[in-house]
Amino acid sequence: MSDKPEPEARPERVPAMQQLLDNPFLLLFIGITIPTVLYIVWGVMEIASIPVAP
């Protein structure tokens, strides 16, 4: 038997990407926000590309 004290267990750091993927509400927010912003930008580009009527 060894008389050495056990080393203190440090809590393992959770990677940022795992924290993101473990949060369902954040995923829901991102899943709604990104497509909404992309469709708005796409719509603005489409409207801006329509030529002005003479």
Describe this structure in words.
- It is a single chain.
- The protein has 54 residues and is mainly α.
- It is built from 2 helices and no strands.
- It is rod-shaped.
- The model has no long low-confidence stretch (mean pLDDT 89).
List the helices and strands and how they pair.
Layout (H helix, E strand, L loop, with lengths): L15 H6 L2 H26 L5
Low-pLDDT stretches are: none
Class by alpha and beta content: mainly alpha
User: What is the ordering of alpha helices and beta strands?
Assistant: HH
* pLDDT averaged residue by residue: 89
Strand content: under 5%
- Name the helicity range: 55-70%
- The separation of the N and C termini measures 95 Å
Q: Categorize the overall geometry.
A: rod-shaped
Q: How many DSSP E strands?
A: 0
User: How many individual helices?
Assistant: 2
Question: Main sheet?
Answer: none
Compute the CA-based radius of gyration: 26 Å
